[in-house]
Structures are given as structure tokens and as C-alpha cells.
Amino acid sequence: MSTISLKNKRVLITGISGFVGMHLARAVEKKGAKVFGISRSKENLTIFRSNVIDFSKINEIIKKNKIEICFHLAAESLVESGQSDPYQTFKINIIGTLNLLESARINKLEKIIIASTSHVYGNNPVPYKEDYPPKPSRPYETSKTCVDLIAQSYADTFNLPVLIPRFSNTYGPGDTNFNRLIPKTIQSVLHNEAPKMWGGDALRDYIYIDDVVDAYIKLAEIPSATIEKNRIFNFGTGTTISVKDVIAKIIDVANANLKIETNNEVRSLEISEQFVSSEKANRIIKWKPQVTFDAGIVNAIAWYKANS
User: What phi, psi does 16 have (nearest 5°)?
Assistant: First the structure.
């Protein structure tokens, strides 16, 4: 499959100051693109301080800067936030995405890539495949499912070049959201504190940040003519590891002498096993994960040590 070049493309990344956004921005710049960003917390000459629920501001940024490709990463991305503040989760995720899609339609963007998650599949058989019907339960997963459906509606109705990557759990250097399992556990271990564990038998797929960025780049390089109608791609390693074993691996790699503390708190509607099939991504865009979990954890711990 031939690909398009990102050189000199005018690229917008929403949520550019976040974990994935920062890594993606560097990779897109290396491809020769002119990168613009939207963030609620940071601004410089090409990073605009704005909230994605402000349509007029978003549309102004896209129009004024002649954006050609947009990566929409800005979102409320934690299950826990959906539980504690469901209204805000639905508002940010749905209205924010709707604003980007409408502006993309008005300004005729070449491509808009909407970040999604494997959590939308819910209680489906594993490995999840792109043609499975979403089965969300909690507010976070439901909000992302709504986003997916709205994006597909825009794509089909207005022939908008939309791509929807659904990622497994992303981790790696630079993730400072210490509500997530891996950063939280590494932080505890490096402070010589016993890590706390919930649902130790839950099986999840963890994908390293470099592989996530590579997936985004490959999607951005797809010629519009080869985008399949549903435009959805799964990205994951295809393997799982239990919460208990993730924590044990971090303790072992950090060479710490700590025991795991069990947290008896039960997370409602938690699914025991989640992972995706990435066969479609491999077949169409030749994407495969390159970083093993063992190597990724070593890299992550080294980064947290250097930046603690």
C-alpha cells in the first residue's frame, strides 16, 4: 500500500500536553509536519489554550491555521472519573469530539483521527474484533462508544475521512497520571511503599507508548482511498497479564523488597479479561507491536527514576 507523506502537512493535536500527545507531537514533527496543539493547560506559539467543548475557538484555530490533519486525543480518559463525575465525562468526550468533527466537515480536513479505546467492547468474547458490537456499561466506556458512533455517522454521511483507533491500555515514559495502575505502582515502589492492588486476577493487554505513536503515524499516512468504510482499527499486543503479575513485575525489575497490599474495594462492572485482535491493522497498514512488556517496564521504571 502506498502512503502519503506528512512532510509540510499542517497537523493539529488536541490534548497535546498529555502523555500520548507529547510523544505523538515529537514523532509528527520528525516526519516534517508543522504541528499545532490544543491544550487546557499549556500554550506557546503553536499550542493554543482552549477547551475542546468551545466550538467557536476550535473552529477558529482550525480555519486560521489551515489545518489539514487532526489527531483528536483530548478527552476524559479515566474509568474512575466517569464514576465520580459522569456528567463531565459525557460532556467533554461527546461535545469535544462533535466539535472537532463539525469543524473538520466545514473546513474539509484531509483526515481526522479520533482516539478510542478497547473498553468500548465491554463484555464481548476475546480477542475483540472491529466488527463486534460495542457493549459499554460504565459512563466512561459509554461516552467513548457514543464518540465512535458519532464519528462513524459523520464519516458515512459526509464522506469525512475519519479513522478510529481503539487502543489497549497504554503505558510508558512520561505518563504522570498516577491514577493508572503502572505509574501508580512504579511511584509506590520507588518510594519504598507497598503497592496496593485491586482485582488482582483481572487480565489486561498493555501497549507501549512507542507502538501507540507508530499506530497513529501509520493511520495518518493511509491514503483516503484505502480507508475501509467502518474506519475502525484495533491496536494491542494480543497478550494479557494479570494486575497481580504487573505489580509483581514492577517490584522485581525495581529490585524492591516489598509485599503487595490487597485492596478489597470492588470496581463495579469490572470485566475479567480484555484484549484485542490487531490482525486488521497488520493486514492493512502493516502495524505490529515492537516493544515487549518486559522491555517496556524496564524503560518506564528508568524514566520514573530519572524524573522522580
Answer: -65, -25
User: What pLDDT score was predicted for residue 308?
Assistant: 80
- Look up 140 and say whether it is catalytic: yes
Taking the C-alpha atoms of residue 180 and residue 207, their distance in angstroms, rounded to an integer, is: 14
Distance between CA atoms of 251 and 194, rounded to whole angstroms? 9
- Give me the sign of the Cα torsion angle 243, 248, 254, 259: positive
Q: Among candidates 74, 1, 3, 61, which has minimal Cα distance to 35?
A: 61
208-246 as b/e: b if 16+ CB within 10 A: bbbbbbbbbbbbbbbeeeebeeebbbbbbbbebbbbeeb
pLDDT at 22 over 90: yes
Q: Identify the active-site residue in 128, 140, 208, 304.
A: 140
Question: For 244-292, how does the pLDDT look when each residue is reduced to its tens digit (9 = 90+)?
Answer: 999 999 999 999 999 998 876 656 667 889 999 999 999 999 999 999 9
Alpha-carbon distance of 75 to 52, in angstroms, equals 9
Using CA atoms, how far apart are residues 306 and 201, in angstroms rounded to an integer?
31
Q: Provide the pLDDT confidence category of residue 44 given band limits of 50, 70 and 90.
A: low
Please state, rounded to an integer, the average pLDDT across all residues of the chain: 92
Contacts (Cβ under 8 Å, ≥6 apart) of 82:
76, 89, 138, 139, 140, 141, 143
Can you give the pLDDT at residue 266?
Answer: 57
For the question of whether the overall pTM of this predicted structure is more than 0.90, the answer is yes
Nine-digit cell at 300? 518506564
